Amino acid sequence: MPAARSARAPWRSLLGIVFIAHGVITLAAAVVLAMLPAAIPATVGIELGPDGYLLSYFLAAAELAIGVLSLGAARLTDPTAVGLIVATFVVFHLATALLELVFLFSAAPSAVLVGNLVVRLVAAVVFVVAWRFWRRRAASASA
């Protein structure tokens, strides 16, 4: 069996818990964005009328795809694939946090937006830490 396949599936580890929790939360966001397209923007003071619902639908589709990827990643054992998925999620959350910060400089301060920014930063750190633990265990399992 190749070394890349001998790693333990993440779902049996902290990384697996992170992937599954991330997937469930992201899928929930997709459902809310699809069913109530103005609800999430309203939490940060953005009024979205029916003409703007398409933006929420696009975001719902992206959230759905990210959620499915996150749930699927919990079953992977290839360290390269798992690392790429973690890197993608870290970039997604850090880029979102940066864009929220840019928005905060041009809009009225919002506790919800600041809270979401912090959650994004924490999510990125949690993914990196959980991945490092999983990778260390995967390396020792293949040795």
TrEMBL record:
It comes from the Bacteria. Keywords: Membrane, Transmembrane, Transmembrane helix. The chain crosses the membrane at residues 14-40, 52-74, 81-105, 111-134. The keyword Membrane applies. It comes from Agromyces flavus. This is DoxX-like family protein.
